[in-house]
Amino acid sequence: MPPVEPVRDAAAVWDIALPARPSRIAGVSMAAFRGRTASLIDIQVIPYPALTMFIDFGDGLLVDDAGGGRARGTVVTGLSLGGVRGSGRNIDCLQVRLSPVVAHAALGASSELGGAVVDLEELWGPDTVRIQERLAATRSWEDRFAIVEAALARRHGTGPAVDPEIDFAWERMASSRGRIRVDRLADEVGWSRKRLWTRFRSQIGLTPKSAAKLIRFDHAAHLLAAGHSAAVVAVESGYVDQSHLHRDVMAFAGVTPRAVAVAPGLAVDDVAWTGAGQAQANQRSSA
């Protein structure tokens, strides 16, 4: 069946600003969002196979329905995040997605984050306040992108790098859309299954099996958002059946596949995070 348009048009909700060029740090992508509606914006945060830094200049709020936590300002969300919503009336936010390989060095806490929502100051200390002050002093999104990228580059350049084998394993998982067995990965990197499991968990923040499931879920979520039926998505994403897909979606997102299919955050993805989006001629990088 041909894909259908998402129920909620991202362009009707957000002004989206993109950097003039991709980040110099492989595994890092940035976009900025400004709410365009006068009413309260409330969006389910759909888990994604990357850590996400939210730098909010408005009244945006992250709410963890499961843990009861609330966070404002500059926060970082870990992998495998479920049951978290973003809301606000005056959302003015810069978002940075970091692959867990990059986050291990740039944030220094991939394994501790897991599915948590933490204040960046817990990870970067006093540097966070200085960066926030610089960001608040400029109204240009392009300058803000540059400030954040420079801060990430400094941290990434001096932080602990993941093992080459872990980098390879993550890239193999990503390229296979989560459809590669841990035993095969262990054979390819020349490690025992136990060693791969332990080192991957300590550096990425999830076990290899959980990471592969998250990557597979992400692929399935975007197929659902593109209008494909759950039956088709289950087959194309490597699930045993629709019930298997339903269980994974509920486990990761806390909502049904039908709810994921109309999630406005996924509609934004095609504009803000894809290669095509980076090249849009109508990007807005000024205040």
Question: How many strands, which pairing sense, and closed or not: the largest β-sheet?
Answer: 6 strands, antiparallel
Cα(first) to Cα(last) distance is: 41 Å
Helix content: 40-55%
Shape by Cα distribution: globular
Number of strands: 10
- Portion in beta strands: 15-25%
Helix and strand pattern: HEEEEEEEEEHHEHHHHHHHHHHHH
The low-confidence runs, each spanning 5 or more residues with pLDDT under 50, are: 1-8, 275-287
* Rounded radius of gyration (Å): 18 Å
Number of helices: 15
Q: Looking across the biggest beta sheet, what order are the strands in? A: 1-2-9-4-7-10
- pLDDT averaged residue by residue: 82
Alpha-beta classification: alpha+beta
Task: Show the helix and strand layout.
Blueprint: H1 10-13, E1 14-17, E2 28-35, E3 41-45, E4 51-56, E5 61-64, E6 70-71, E7 74-77, E8 84-88, E9 92-98, H2 100-106, H3 110-113, E10 117-119, H4 121-124, H5 127-136, H6 141-158, H7 164-175, H8 182-189, H9 193-204, H10 208-225, H11 230-237, H12 242-253, H13 257-261, H14 264-272, H15 275-278
Antiparallel strand pairs: 1-2, 2-9, 3-8, 4-7, 4-9, 5-6, 5-8, 7-10
Helix pairs in contact: 2-6, 8-9, 10-11, 10-12
How would you describe this protein?
With 287 residues, the protein is α+β, with helices and mostly antiparallel strands. The protein is built from 15 helices and 10 strands. It has helices spanning 10-13, 100-106, 110-113, 121-124, 127-136, 141-158, 164-175, 182-189, 193-204, 208-225, 230-237, 242-253, 257-261, 264-272, 275-278; strands spanning 14-17, 28-35, 41-45, 51-56, 61-64, 70-71, 74-77, 84-88, 92-98, 117-119. The strands form 2 sheets. It has a 6-stranded antiparallel beta sheet, with helices on both faces. α2 packs across α6, α8 packs across α9 and α10 (208-225) packs antiparallel against α11 (230-237). It is globular, with a radius of gyration of 18 Å. The chain starts with 9 loop residues before the first helix and ends in a 9-residue tail after the last helix. The model is unreliable at 1-8 and 275-287 (pLDDT under 50).
